[in-house]
Amino acid sequence: MWKQILGKLPRKSQKPDQDSTRNPSLGPNSSSPGSSRVNASSPAAKRASAAVFPASVIAGIEPLLAFKDVPSSEKMNLFISKLSLCCVVFDFTDPAKNIQEKELKRATLLELLDFVSQNPPKFSEPAILASCKMCSINLFRVFPPNCRSSNTSSGENDNDDEPTFDPAWSHLQIVYDFLLKFVTSAALEAKVAKKYINHSFIMRIIDLFDTEDPRERDCLKAILHRIYGKFMVHRPFIRKCISNVFYRFVFETEKHNGIAELLEIFGSVITGFALPLKEEHKIFLSRALIPLHKPKSLGIYFQQLSYCVTQFIEKDPKLASSVIQGLLKYWPITNSQKEVMFLGELEEILEVINVAEFQKVMVPLFWRLGHCINSYHFQVAERALFLWNNDQVVNLIANNRHVLLPIILPALEANAENHWNQAVLNLTLNVRKMLVEMDDVLVMACISNYQEEQQRKDLEVKKRKEVWERLENAASLQPIAGNTAVLVNH
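== Serine/threonine protein phosphatase 2A regulatory subunit ==
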């Protein structure tokens, strides 16, 4: 069928027609050269339209007419006809293929975008159906290989630093802009549109977030956010779908391109949660957000994740202790970069935590901080010691010093004696001086206990060494007899 349709197209040798459709200075409907619009009323454009978009599949008014050329009563019919004309999708992997038809479609898409942007009349149900159909066909259809951006989220990418840009973006961007303006338009009634912007449509929008093209993810982020705001009936479903994306990412694939954008949407959603928080939202925090600290790629979306967690704690301060317990559960023992990020998020939480919640987790928390202070990676040790620059953290420590100083001072003393990095050593001495000023009697007692403990450990090491020496001497005096195996060093 396509061969028969394409056979009706004007030949490439007909240069005057092609040039007239591609020259922006020809015709009243043309725009600046960068827009690549064509004069929809030109003979070549009409021949291309008749060939690629047969009249039998376009119901209603002639789609090549301009909106300004029809009465108001016919504009919605023209809108539907133009949407039908844009339901044909081209292969953009070959730039020289279907040039005339692609430019005609792009010009029509721009007309549609202008129409929905300029206070259109209330969208009828057929117009909503046609709009959703056009967006679905262009955005959700199964494309030929390489026709849309390749999705390597389930496999290895040879060059992770270079995103793949969609060759069809010149059309897709307009479709996304159209969908955004359409969803946010006052002419769109949510109670009618929810029939077509339904669960299936929303799920496909969320699936598209895995694209490698950052421009596409930004468009999707704006659209999904607006859908969430306008269609209250769909909000639980959207939250559930995003949760499922997070679960699959954390516990199965650890590969997804759109985690940061989805978290950015949730950051603004959380601020709108009513108090007291529903159990559903607390479960999302514990089962989706906190486990997102686990993947190796945390750095890509850490800022958005940290913001979401902080928003939850600001909504309900009682959640702070459970969040800290989650951080301790997923603490990155062997990844120094992630450890520095965890310490930064921990400081933000400690700035807003109340005393009661702090006391629930302070013992395991400061045991972990002690290990961070003794880290041989100087950035980890520095970041842990920087916590004492925060007045709120110092106040929490001061109010609970009889429990915390015996935990943290041994780590400080070990640093003062052994740490290789001069900057860490200086910070250690400053923190110890601060603690002495806080409670010098308690600090001296803790230091004395630390020294006694070190002497006891040194004595144990000495005794163990002496025992091994006696055993080795005794073994050396025994004769080698029978089939005893002897290890010979060469």
